[in-house]
Amino acid sequence: MTTERNRTTGRPTLEEVAARAGVGRGTVSRVVNGSAQVSPRARQAVEEAIQELGYVPNRAARTLVTQRTDSIALVIFESGERFFAEPFFGRIVQATSSVLVARNLQMVLMIAQAPEERRRLEGYLTRQHVDGALLLSLHGDDPLPAVLEERGVATVRAGRPTYADRGSYVDADNRGGAREAVSYLWSRGRRRIAAITGPLDMAAGIGRLEGYRDVVGDGPVAFGDFSEESGAAAMYRLLEQYPDLDAVFAASDMMAAGALRVLRQHGRRVPDDVAVIGFDDSVITRHTEPSLTSVDQPIAEMGREMVRLLLAKIDGDEPAETQVVLPTRLVIRGSA
Q: Cα separations (Å) of 256 from 161, 215, 335?
């Protein structure tokens, strides 16, 4: 209940919450700061008083006491155009945001690709605006994670690094998922299986190509960058060079959608003439014709694991296992 006094004399104070709840000021402070050192009865009384009075903690004052901002950066190292076009990013933002909100933490979404954007990003992250950073879509041997860690910013990345590194990451089993997809095509009698790869300066691109080669060996390959346009261009090249191919494994659903479009333009029936499998199991799979067989990544679980590892780092309670690889599964639909 918000009283007339609350509206006219300013927002409620910590002392007013304590008086309403019948507890000391320190108990209210512990509840607000998420401390476990409060009895269930006292916590309930404080939470009810906060709700009745409409109390909002003073974030600036809390930061001075706890040295925490209660903000976590989610950084995407791609262009804004790519971020809004590819379903993976929306799903990972939703997954991580839901976990952070449940823990009363604020997510700061940042997109940085150009050099000037990266310089601003580095300055922002290292000036104590956030408690830690989740890093997505890193390319090559990007030095930023090491720079941030050296300056005291806890980080966890999505995707394993492409080089030897002891940092924390959460990834899907890209190689295993690709291997399962191509093995399925092989089991269905397909023998001229081509691959459309993702960028080979990213672990996902490398792992999915390795999984393809585990089954096919040195088969026909065309290179893409996970976008629909690159998948279409790669499919054109494959049809020119290998007109007798009977299956395609594309390292993303976006590229698979581009490949399906080109196959249709060339009069190839899917899956009768050419079977197609993508990777991500995104919303795209339900809107292609035919519906797209794809490798599912556990994106919600990836988001939860990233947040878990990061908060453990921030709390100084880093678990023994800081590199997590989650299983994938093949979802069979009409295209294969």
A: 25, 19, 10
- Residues 321 and 265 occupy one common structural domain: no
Starting at the edge strand found earlier in the chain, the sheet holding 247-250 runs 221-223, 193-197, 247-250, 275-280, 293-296, 329-331
13/30 same-domain check: yes
DSSP 297: P
Same domain, 92 and 62: no
CA atoms 141, 144, 149, 154: torsion sign: negative
Q: Is residue 334 one of the residues assigned to a domain?
A: no
Report cis status (omega within 30 of 0) of the bond before 243.
no
Number of domains in the chain: 3
Q: What is the pTM of this model?
A: 0.77
Domain boundary among 15, 44, 66: 66
Instruction: Kindly state whether residue 84 falls inside one of the protein's structural domains.
Output: yes
- Dihedral sign, Cα of residue 126, residue 127, residue 133, residue 139: negative
pLDDT at 188: 96
* Residue where a domain terminates, one of 39, 66, 93: 66
SS (H, E, C) 65-113: HHCCCCEEEEEECCCHHHHHHCHHHHHHHHHHHHHHHHCCCEEEEEECC
Residue 266 in tokens:
């060339």
* Terminal C-alpha separation, the chain: 59
Q: Which two tokens stand for residue 175?
A: 């190689």
Nearest to 188 by CA among 238, 256, 247: 247
Residue-wise pLDDT for 306-334, tens only, equals 999 998 888 777 676 788 999 999 999 99
CA nearest neighbour of 181 among 270, 84, 250, 242: 250
Specify whether 25 is located in the same domain as 131.
Answer: no
Q: State whether 180 and 31 are in the same domain.
A: no
Tens digits of per-residue pLDDT, 262-312? 999 999 999 999 999 999 999 999 999 999 999 999 998 999 999 999 988
pLDDT in tens, 4-23: 444 444 677 878 889 999 99
Write out the residue range of the structural domain in which residue 313 sits.
71-171+299-326
Residue pair 290/270 in contact (Cβ under 8 Å)? The answer is: yes
